[in-house]
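Dear colleagues,

For the upcoming journal club I promised to circulate an example of a predicted protein-ligand complex. I picked one with adenosine-5'-tetraphosphate because it came up in last month's discussion. The inputs are reproduced below in full, followed by the predicted structure.
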Amino acid sequence: MTKLRVLSGMQPSGQPTLGNYIGAMRNYVKLQHTHDCYFMVVDLHAITVPQDPGALKEQTESVAALYLAAGIDPSQATIFLQSSVSGHAELGWLLTTLTYMGELERMTQFKDKSEGKESVGVGLFTYPSLMAADILLYNADLVPVGDDQKQHLELTRDLAHRFNGRFGDTFKIPQGYIPEVGARIMSLDDASKKMSKSNPNAGSYIAMLDAPDVIRKKISRAVTDSGREVKFDPVNKPEVSNLLSIYSAVTDQSVEEIEAMYAGQGYGPFKKGLAEAVVALLEPLQQKYKDIRESGDLQRILREGREKASEQAERTLGEVKSKMGYVIL
Ligand code: AQP
């Protein structure tokens, strides 16, 4: 039986966080055994907000190495850099011409990221069309995304329908794959905002590469409320509920079990327990990361990934251009 194809990516726009791991990366690891997986580092997306070239390079290699450290196996899944396959930018442009301004104006991520900024780059506005290209280029069946990306995936589906309607059946209509637990991990300093790697306040997130003592300090300083009951109640106790979601995602224990463990103990022991659980999860991963960076294997793995991804991308792009009326030489 042919395996369903999965495609997803992560932006090298900062140090990947525990949110990125729980909401995306660890699902990638599971999916590689049962699906035909393509995992990118979406470095073209990262430049929709300004990036320092040195930092972009380091973060790109870092995300790729974290994929491997988290357990993605290059013999099972294709790992590559978005910018190394030129078809992304090309199909991105073709799909931009099929996208309506109103559709992009409705995107909440654009509204959030542009809020309060004096000048906003056009790339930030049109980025959902490029994301659609990333997915459609590989005719992906499933796209594992966090809650925040649902709207972009919906646009991808609309664009695929629109293209197929106008130019003839070409694209598969992709489905979202959204994990039930921990789909949206929130900031440690503000439970109304999602945990994000580009947040200028490093105390708002746990980076996957944070040292154990940094993790302990960040969790001990995480905002809670003036109560002392460890209880899952997202409306009245959003901060504690977020910490409970993280605890549950990291240990695979149910929220009820964790509530029972800390009943009557207040937030101190709960936070300590959470910090140790996060450290226990990330420490071995960090050691693997170090080994991978030192091994020098990354370039080869990314080159092999590019070869495989390019083949598929070129096939789709050829079909798209021919259907749109481009002269193929
Ligand atoms: N807080 C989160 N909880 C659960 N999942 C999350 N994801 C991101 N933040 C959380 C998921 O991680 C994947 C990769 O995301 P991305 O790097 O492409 O961009 P993003 O969603 O914008 O992530 P960040 O960390 O917030 O990056 P910046 O700060 O650059 O915008 C996606 O599947 C996402 O859902």
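Two points we might discuss: Residues 202-290 form a domain with the Tyrosyl-Transfer RNA Synthetase fold (CATH 1.10.240.10). Residues 189 and 201 are 9 Å apart (CA to CA).

See you all on Thursday,
B. R.
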